[in-house]
Amino acid sequence: MTTPLVDFSRLCIHTMTTKPWTLEETIDGYTRAGVPAITVWRQHLEPYGPDEAGRMLRDSGLRVVSLCRGGFFPATNAAAREEARNDNRRAIDEAAAIGAPLVVLVCGAIPGMDLADGRQQILDGIAAVLPHAQAAGVKLAIEPLHPMYADSRSAVNTLEQANNMVAALRSPWLGVTVDVYHLWWDPMLKSEIARAADSIFSFHVCDWRTPTRDILNDRGMMGEGCINIKRIRGWVEDAGFRGPIEVEIFSNEFWDWDQTRLVERIKQAYLSAV
Amino acid sequence: MTTPLVDFSRLCIHTMTTKPWTLEETIDGYTRAGVPAITVWRQHLEPYGPDEAGRMLRDSGLRVVSLCRGGFFPATNAAAREEARNDNRRAIDEAAAIGAPLVVLVCGAIPGMDLADGRQQILDGIAAVLPHAQAAGVKLAIEPLHPMYADSRSAVNTLEQANNMVAALRSPWLGVTVDVYHLWWDPMLKSEIARAADSIFSFHVCDWRTPTRDILNDRGMMGEGCINIKRIRGWVEDAGFRGPIEVEIFSNEFWDWDQTRLVERIKQAYLSAV
To answer: What CATH code is assigned to A11-273?
Structure first.
């Protein structure tokens, strides 16, 4: 049995979950609500710049869990691939500047590109930026995305593929992100989580709504969908993971809410359904 | 290299592709267009009943490739599971009545039911109806569905799972359906198609649109999406499959078209992109 969560010490929220808020409003909202940790998306960082954002975050006392997102390595020509790698190097520098120990990689896909080619370009791209990550003291996590995003967002669609890439590149600076939304359906999930072991660098939660009204922005609040989040958390913890539990919900519905009320709803769902 | 298709001898269209048409209009439309084969959905059969529909289909000269769809085995209580099995037995009888040698199984899922339980209920359900299929001379094909349907439509989401079920039940009356829409993303697809070999009972084509505007009814015309259909057809043929190529497109967009024009569009796309 998974041990129940009884306080908010491991709770982290992604700035994209409360997308309408600026970073300043987010920091204020999370600290007021007693949320101890934050994952910052680059679009929320951009208006401030990494130095100013880093100062705000340090002053807030919030723990910065990760920067989202790097990745998007495949491209149709070498110049574009090099630009993608440089953008990942910039993301690593931004992470270092805001005190984030991790950059999460949404690996990318080009519609119509052969998936095997895309996957090779991803592996090559990660290999190329890993030295920069190590030099900056920032880890990278491959986040496998649901197969419904294999066309344009990520050609890495199972934890097995991500684990294979980690095994191929053999670096303590490279691991995986387990996101229940992307992986819950996979019959190999339990064994691949066990295999990932201490290369599980982060853990994301939300839920799968039935019906799903939008392929991108209709993720559910934990407990309102069909994912057995507690069980997957148990597998992740059995594998050794004890880090933050990150609430990442892309939802047109919740973005329309008062975001302070949304954070309270998240805290409630976190205790009951995670 | 996959051998180009130069005529329509292997073309089959699903009645759901031209959903606005009645079965009578469908038979008329396909024969006028020189489409030699049809897969019949039960909702198009229902207004006529299997005997009358069987007479109409025999009179038309169309080859009946399969009946869609059986399945939906998981249920929350034993009585409902038995009713699901009885409904599959009725589908088998309907297939026999219309001269369809195959019933395609969309295996089912109950939102929130443990996936392992659902998968076991599917295996048990298929095992329970297989004797009826054999007695009727009708084969059954497990169609793995895309993981985005794992919540409510099918807990069988990879060809590997379907192949494992076929291996477990060891009957010449049980095989698999390869549908490019559901399976194109899978890094194991090529090897699992080879493994399926002569248990590949049918092959469905359409395409994956970017962006996908609706999770159910926005499938693309062959060639307008990102799936390398020719390559997957090559794998299926390398595995020994030489049967009909079935066009199954659920599309709010195409259902709004004049359906005669849609059939002509399908013929064009079939020669160029399949």
So the answer is: 3.20.20.150
